[in-house]
Amino acid sequence: MSEINKNLHQERKSYDQSTLRIHMVDNDPIKQFDQWYCEAESFGDFEANAMVISTVSMDGRPSSRVVLLKEYSNEGLIFFSNYDSRKGREIAANNAVSVLFFYEQMQRQIRIDGRVEKISEKASEDYFKTRPIESQYGAMVSQQSHPLASKDELEKEFQSILNSNKKPQRPKHWGGYILKPSYFEFWQGRPNRLHDRIYYSFEKKSWNKGILSP
Ligand SMILES: Cc1cc2nc3c(=O)[nH]c(=O)nc-3n(C[C@H](O)[C@H](O)[C@H](O)COP(=O)(O)O)c2cc1C
């Protein structure tokens, strides 16, 4: 077996696209998020709504994966998943999560921490119906995160439910979560690793903001 030993020490990029100073940001972090999100959306051909969400298991082990942000407002950020998946089980035990958006092309990162709750059954139902019918069937046949005996078997099950013309039904274990933020951080890459970092934390019923050392 060949040995792999790769050195990435020379992989260096200078960040100099824009700046983020405290006088430039909104007092309301969700408005600031909205501004950066809209800029990312119009910047280019990437999924601006893809976010890494980290959860922590009962025995304190963190895990991360990408999910898609589907709605945001002053109330929080909404995404959809399988409540029986690994993330779903971890959230049920500990609803503190951390979310990360990495906008590489813009040399930006947004971090959001908070707690998640399930959204109402009706809101999950309403969104489920807007999904392409194939995705609805997909959610019906997938026991997300559970070991699978055979991928071919799953594909067969999917084809047979698709061919049956049976009306898709949202599984009870599939639905939305809302992340209620208590912390935001906006990071803009700067030359010489002297990056701009602005944080907001929710204390005593209001948002306080400040600057962090890079
Ligand atoms: C671009 C992208 C978008 C994804 N969107 C979702 C999503 O919205 N909901 C979801 O449950 N999984 C989504 N996934 C799959 C998850 O990353 C993950 O594989 C899955 O949710 C199982 O994670 P878990 O075993 O930690 O629960 C997405 C993956 C990628 C790469």
Principal-axis shape? globular
**Ligand set:** flavin mononucleotide
What CATH calls the topology of the domain at 22-131 and 173-211 is Pnp Oxidase, Chain A
- Poorly predicted runs are none
Beta percentage is: 25-35%
The mean pLDDT is 97
CATH class of the domain at 22-131 and 173-211: Mainly Beta
| Sheet with the most strands, sense and barrel status | 6 strands, antiparallel, barrel
- Following the backbone from N to C, one meets helices and strands in this order, namely HEEEHEEHHHEEE
Which structural class should the secondary elements be placed in? alpha+beta
Helix content range of the residues, please?
25-40%
Rg calc: 20 Å
Describe the structure.
It is a single chain. This protein has helices at 29-43, 86-93, 121-130, 133-141, 151-163, and strands spanning 50-56, 62-73, 76-82, 96-103, 108-118, 174-188, 196-203, 206-211. The model has no long low-confidence stretch (mean pLDDT 97). The protein has a domain at 22-131 and 173-211: Pnp Oxidase, Chain A (Roll), CATH 2.30.110.10. A 6-stranded antiparallel barrel has the order 1-2-3-6-5-4. It is globular and about 60 Å long. By secondary structure, the protein is α+β, with helices and mostly antiparallel strands. It starts with 28 loop residues before the first helix and ends with a strand. α4 crosses α5. The chain binds flavin mononucleotide (FMN).
